[in-house]
């Protein structure tokens, strides 16, 4: 279905258990800084350049498209879950995708809409949880679930809703942090307390999912992981690169092999 299509009386549901009010409050307070590349979201801007190229290259390889074309993702219905201020959504829209960006923080969506308008980009932004989209039976060719799962309160419920949004033959990307001793040292002690690259409290280590945990939730809904990659951060020049090591940041690519909930 077209992500912009809304039913006259969309299904109503209680507040999803995956939403953590403390996380919403944290990102509401930071919302005005989303597009400040020297502010608290600079790591996300740096990561976005890496992940945009990665997503485009892998999608084009999967679909037999030319990644050097002016709009290589033209015609693809793409969902950006937890879009924040629209950093990744805008990158995907510039590549030609029909982007639906969603977030549960109203101020984030307000920032994203304003920035897209000033950038001349047609992006459909909405304050809505993934559980509501799942209830609408929305479907997308591409689902981006980037740097979100480590912030949700109910990972199985959240992933079940996300998984249901992937079309048959669709593809999804998931990026998060691994729950390892190394990630505790690097992503929290190092990034938040020593280097102060991120505000303290940005992450909770116990919520970092291990790849095997995510893969089990994906497989249960008919999604198969076809590629895994890690992300390495150079603390000296603040650059980021792909790596085979998954112990800190990692990304998964999945494709649908059977209907959600099928056998």
What does this structure look like?
Belongs to the methyltransferase superfamily. UbiG/COQ3 family. Its EC number is 2.1.1.222, 2.1.1.64. O-methyltransferase that catalyzes the 2 O-methylation steps in the ubiquinone biosynthetic pathway. The protein has a single domain, classed as Rossmann fold (3-Layer(aba) Sandwich), CATH 3.40.50.150. α2 packs parallel to α3 and α5 crosses α6. β4, α6 and β5 form a beta-alpha-beta unit. By secondary structure, it is an alpha/beta fold. Strands 3-2-1-4-5-8-6-7 form an eight-stranded mixed β-sheet. The chain is built from eight helices and eight strands; from the N terminus they run ααβαβαβαβαβααβββ. The N terminus is likely disordered.
Outline of this structure?
The chain has 8 helices and 8 strands, in the order ααβαβαβαβαβααβββ. It is α/β, with parallel strands linked by helices and 263 residues long.
């Amino acid at each position: 279905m077209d992500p912009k299509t809304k039913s006259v009386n969309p299904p109503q549901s209680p507040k999803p258990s995956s939403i953590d009010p403390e996380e919403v409050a944290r990102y509401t307070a930071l919302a005005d800084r989303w597009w400040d590349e020297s502010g608290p979201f600079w790591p996300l801007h740096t990561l976005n350049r890496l992940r945009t190229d990665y997503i485009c290259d892998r999608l084009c390889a999967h679909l037999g498209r030319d990644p050097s074309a002016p709009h290589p993702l033209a015609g693809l219905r793409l969902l950006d879950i937890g879009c924040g201020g629209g950093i990744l959504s805008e990158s995907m829209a510039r590549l030609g995708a029909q982007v639906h960006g969603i977030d549960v923080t109203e101020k984030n969506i307000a920032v994203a809409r304003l920035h897209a308008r000033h950038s001349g980009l047609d992006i459909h932004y909405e304050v809505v949880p993934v559980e509501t989209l799942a209830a609408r039976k929305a479907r997308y060719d591409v689902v981006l679930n980037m740097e979100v799962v480590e912030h949700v309160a109910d990972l199985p419920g959240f992933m079940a809703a996300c998984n249901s949004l992937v079309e048959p033959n669709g593809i999804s990307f998931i990026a998060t942090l691994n729950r390892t001793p190394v990630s505790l040292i690097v992503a929290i002690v190092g990034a938040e307390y020593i280097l102060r690259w991120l505000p303290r409290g940005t992450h909770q280590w116990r919520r970092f999912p291990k790849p095997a945990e995510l893969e089990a939730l994906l497989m249960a809904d008919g999604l198969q992981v076809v590629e895994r990659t890690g992300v390495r951060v150079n603390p000296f020049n603040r650059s980021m690169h792909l790596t085979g090591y998954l112990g800190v940041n990692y990304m998964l690519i999945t494709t649908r092999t059977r209907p959600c909930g099928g056998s």
